[in-house]
Predict the structure.
Amino acid sequence: MSKHRYKVHPVLLGEAQVGCILDVFWGMNPDTGKKLPNARIVKVPIFAFLIEGGPDPILVDAGMRSAERAVEIHRLGPHWMPETMSLESQLARIGVKPSEITTCILTHLHYDHAGGCEKLPNARIVVQRSELAAAAAPIGPRHLEIGSRELFYDRKDVAALVDLLWDRVELIEGDVTLFPGIECIHYPNSHTPGSQCVYVDTADGVVGLVGDMVRKVDLNVRRGIPPGIYYDLEQMQRAMRDIALRGDIIYPTHDPMVGEKNKRKRLAALKPGKPWP
Ligand SMILES: [Zn+2]
């Protein structure tokens, strides 16, 4: 076991109202029960994560560009990004300034993960090359009821990465150990073509910052029902098993249990359990 011990802080960069049909594929979600019509819509957090313990603080994901754009472009429910959930004020709670962050790892480029990169003046931005290609030229029909033609990517985020921020963009391909005790693992054609998870060695074990690879630890990892958005179902199933093998604690972007203050409850809800054979 590595002796590198980092600390992971969830930072809340917004909230969104979405259908919980997204949690599991084929709508196999007990929460969508017909008896409870309101249960179909849930309010979810949009987390990013700050890693402390290296020479500089590291940010994993960067939240959304604007709440209005999220609704307008992707035709989703209301989104919220009040001042208290801005990157600056969330980082200030931990005593970190955006300018101190020298590495930002993006799990993928969906609008609620890649929208805040321009707020980091000194960070190199680490993303899988295949993800940037997919975000620039998303595949699919021109009109989708949810997600639109952009498939949850925001062209302004892509434009910033390939132009304004390009000198600081570090494209990686496959699995990379970015720092001792911090690994990026690529899961091709899973939640997106180039999604990656970041595994961080902490005092509580290896924390998996999994982006949207997992919506709910219990449903997707323990019970092995993949989330609702995936490119290749078999790849997604393999990824769920790999995540359970690698991570001692799983932090999804949108699982409210990530924000649970009671540590015992939080860890109990976010442990992956034994992977299936
Ligand atoms: Zn996503």
Q: What stands out?
A: The chain is about 25% helix and 25% strand. The longest helix spans residues 233-246.
